[in-house]
């Protein structure tokens, strides 16, 4: 019998007002492991009103001194660390990723709360000079009530990436996790409660996107939406939020270039490139899924990548031997398989791995690592975000050509460059239109740095001090000193 979980609204653990639920499925077996409330507009309204009250009465933003906010957030980090193994296991059951990866996610979640707990006592304004007769104060204030809508590929990390800076800035939040992966978001609410976050400051509503996320977009008491997810939903969110001119941060998809120059150290570039495409089952917004390889080293590099992919072991994320888990859902598996079919007709299939043979996993949503080669960047598998373990390898002959190919995409989230020539690496990094560029690496995104995309990969920035700007308003107070 699957657990019937409740959601967290205004300091209480509640069912949906109409009792509706959705099933949570273990993607490695296809079995239902829990049910969570399917929130609707009524539930979201209660959550938003609670968050509004906690914002307006200063429960969190102004009356709770920064040091107290900071202390509570440090306590949240401690609790995440104490529950690390349990949280990691829950994440694996919910989204399928290998346990070692989930542990890494949870460690980063704990650090995010520590990092922004530190910031809570360091947000300050400015006093620009305006002459002897006056004084100007630029003060920072919380934006207010924030709707946080997150996807399923890094469920707890995406939630923390928004919640931690929002809380540090003094905002109150309504978090809407993805319907496929609500379990760790609910645990995060329990951790906030246990750490002493007052009722109404953190609310978690579970449910389907349009029904549970949609009401946040149109609710007049929500000041800001911070969204991570697909480009199309991101556009819908921006259009809808425009009506009330809500503040919006969008972290969307990508089709990131991964460039291997002829002088690259292949012992590093090959595993780095492969992990940058196949890591987290390819369910990564910044996956370097368009792999450009210098024609002079093309054959040996492609062979080495194929050998690497052949060494990937699919299985349950809880099995220590597993290096690639299932995709998150049957829908996502079918979507990715659709792209693989499309690739068979428009490109050359170079490698396709094996699904797990264990009959226990026969109902799981596994897609094996797949490598295509193409001479063109215009094929569908090189243009659209697949969000699965599918690599497209394309040869190039000059720096100018590869920069043009790298930029020939509607996205601009990330890029990776592999070369021993630092001058070429930096020139290429400056020429690629992407928010994050890795040199001789792929995918690191330390909390202290910055994250966000150019072009249709998003609006705004997360991580580091940049994330705080997204949850703060600036106010100018002008004082006439003559009176
Ligand atoms: P999605 O856009 O389908 O869903 C994301 C979230 O939005 C979910 O919580 C969903 O319930 C909610 N949602 C869906 N429709 C909605 C609506 N009409 N109103 C309000 N909320 C709604 O994306 P997904 O499939 O969960 O995630 C995959 C996408 O996320 C990929 O495109 C990936 O690139 C992107 N992503 C981006 C980043 C980044 O940092 N840029 C990180 C992770 C994932």
What does this structure look like?
One of its GO terms (molecular function) is oxidoreductase activity, acting on the aldehyde or oxo group of donors, NAD or NADP as acceptor. By secondary structure, this protein is of the alpha/beta class. It folds into 2 domains: 3-252 and 458-477, Aldehyde Dehydrogenase, Chain A, domain 1 (3-Layer(aba) Sandwich), CATH 3.40.605; 257-446, 3-Layer(aba) Sandwich (Aldehyde Dehydrogenase, Chain A, domain 2), CATH 3.40.309. 39% of the residues lie in helices and 21% in strands. The protein has 15 helices and 22 strands. It has a 7-stranded mixed sheet with strand order 14-15-16-13-12-18-19, sandwiched between helices. A 6-stranded mixed sheet has the order 9-8-7-10-11-21, sandwiched between helices. Strands 1-5-4 form a 3-stranded mixed sheet, with helices on one face. Helix 14 links the parallel strand 18 (414-418) and strand 19 (436-439). The site of nicotinamide-adenine-dinucleotide (NAD) has 28 residues, from helix 7 and helix 8.
Provide the descriptors you would attach to this structure in a database record.
483 residues, alpha/beta, Aldehyde Dehydrogenase, Chain A, domain 1, 2 domains, 7-stranded mixed β-sheet, 15 helices, globular, binds nicotinamide-adenine-dinucleotide, oxidoreductase activity, acting on the aldehyde or oxo group of donors, NAD or NADP as acceptor, Ald_DH_CS_GLU, Ald_DH/histidinol_DH, Ald_DH_N, oxidoreductase
Quick structural overview:
The chain has 483 residues and is of the alpha/beta class. The chain contains 15 helices and 22 strands.
